[in-house]
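U., I forgot to send this yesterday:
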Amino acid sequence: MAKVDTSSSRPYHIVIFGASGFTGQFVVEEVARTVSEGPNGSLTWAVAGRSRQKLDKVLEQTSSAMLLGKPELRTAVEVIVADVGEPDSLAAMCKQAVIVLNCVGPYRFWGEPVVKACVENGAHCIDISGEPQFLESMQLNYDSQAADKGVYIVGACGFDSIPADMGVLYTRDQFKGTLTALESFLTASTGPEGGSINDGTWKSAIYGFADSGKLRSLRKKFGHKPLPVVGSKIKRRSALFYSNEVQQYAVPFMGADPSVVKRSQRFLLEEHQETPVQYGAYAGVGGVANIVKMLFAGMMFWFLVKFSFGRDLLIKYPEFFSFGFFSKDGPTRKQMEGSSFKFAFYGEGYTEGQDPSQGRPNAKIRTLVQGPGGLRGHAHRHGTGRYHHPERCLNGCLGTTYTQS
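Result:
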């Protein structure tokens, strides 16, 4: 495999593209914090986007908001002007970076030019997309080129889908035997200021449902065979049910987690001959009052998303059609500070020495992934409001309970 020099000849370890957007601002804060905590402050980085003025403002706000005591941040961090509509500017940006953190979405419209520029110019690319169609089309179109150049393209590296994907892997590794099936239940809570999700997530959902047929056609091009079912087949839940696991009503999770986890399981099977884990993802929606709102909003959404005029209405008035759950302006910092999330994983499998092809599973395991400020991850589809570091998550907010029958 050909290798690209991504160290000494490149001035920046990280370039944050789209740093002045809703999501990008929080990524800038996290990178600035990481640099200040790192050894000798050796990480070099830059911010990039269309407007130099806005990027300068983000650096100024970051320095003051984080109380870093680093007024020089505005002058120490380089500003790069780049636009997805100008390939030459993207190429110039990528040539300077070891890694590009792409925060410009919706990715189905703006993501591919960045991936293309990264592959052609030898920069690794990380994004926070929760859009399966984008993620899988990039794999289909750029996997071989990226491999030839030694470039990594890492998608869904935000709230979709780090907690789910790494939670599944962590649970599997803790299981004393063969883990065969796993269900996750996402619940979220807000503080006294309430909560909302930035409408970038809303837009991605609109376009995703509108193009669901294209996603099915795309997947046929891979020619994948169904993953083998090991052990008892996982039971699929209904569209709405009461979950004893989280003590509230729940629905199938509509984000990218199931597809991302399945892609990881397929990779582990094909490349490392590891037993695939069946996976089901669900989200808690609360009590009866929330169900009524959800059903009413869902019916409007399913009707309007089929037509171009309906999609325009949904995009123009997210607060109205989502009962305030999605907002063009939110969430505020106070809302994010008061928010939290929990991912509860319930798995079953066969203990060491037990044949998965014989009998029912004889052991269960529960893993809890939780953290404050988790709803930042849904700030902009994604649009993670906060750049969620995998190791920090796994070291700080995981707990596992294992039982054997």
